[in-house]
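So, read this over?
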Amino acid sequence: EGRQAEAERRRTTQRLEQEQERRTIEARRRFGALELELLRLKASIDRTKREQHSYKHFFPDLPTGSWLAASGPLGMIVADYELMADLSTFYGHVEELRWRLRFKAQSDTDESLVNSMIDTLVSQMAEAVDVLLEHVREQVARPNVEQIVGAPQQQPRAGGRTVSRRRQFTGAIPHPGAARVLGGPGRVVGQ
């Protein structure tokens, strides 16, 4: 009976180790896809900084599919909550940029007001995407996944992570009349 208990304990430990390894592989794979998507977003953000003033109808490639597919599963297995929050906030700003570019394209929109607001948002996004790329690359190399209870401890990560970036873009709407000009999703217009 003691041998059976020991054999069962070994099988349980082996299953837990396999699950821990599966989570690590899943995190590495999903962060790899996010890295590619963030590189595309970086290129589009840089292009937007350079060219959006020249066109009323400017719609760069702003992909979000990898984030949409990966955010739920990564949220369940990744131990770096700050990175997940920062990615979520960043992708919210990608949606905001899309909305502002669509708003700018409307025939009754004064481009001069919207261009400066787009510039401010894009400048802050350009800084954020560089920081996020660095942290996502770190996760691809060494994913920080939640430890399964009962599984053998993973090696501790060397060095601490830098403090998470600010999550609010306080300078995103610099114009005093912006609340009237930009209605936007979830905003009150005309106040």
